[in-house]
């Protein structure tokens, strides 16, 4: 290398730690304070559980159900070792399921799609969404009414 390039390398500033380093230091200080640690873990547990449950509810519907469920587990895994292990195991199982689906004949894949559609329609019927949609269209179809009392 020439002298100009060497001089340029010598002048480069040391790399600044990223935002995660600051978080790590803050989290270590919070762990030393029992009350702060308990509050933080409770907050992470509540937020992670809410996101996880929302994701599980969204799984049969078109959209980001699996992503949201895994995000909830990822939030929980930041503080809870059991959630961390479960997240790893579920990722591996999810990857195996997707690989299995890709290897199947088109008829099997269509059957899986139909089963998912049946779950979605069944849920919409139970929650009264089908009757609500029919009402918006001015249709009187009593068989679309939910059998569950609060949604009927």
From TrEMBL:
Q: Mind telling me which InterPro entries this protein's record contains?
A: CHP02611, Uncharacterised_PGPGW_TM
Asked whether the UniProt record includes Transmembrane among its keywords, one would answer yes
Composition bias, Polar residues: 1-10
Region Disordered, annotated ranges: 1-24
TM region positions:
38-59, 65-83, 110-137
Q: Which UniProt keywords apply?
A: Membrane, Transmembrane, Transmembrane helix
Q: What is this protein called?
A: Uncharacterized protein (TIGR02611 family)
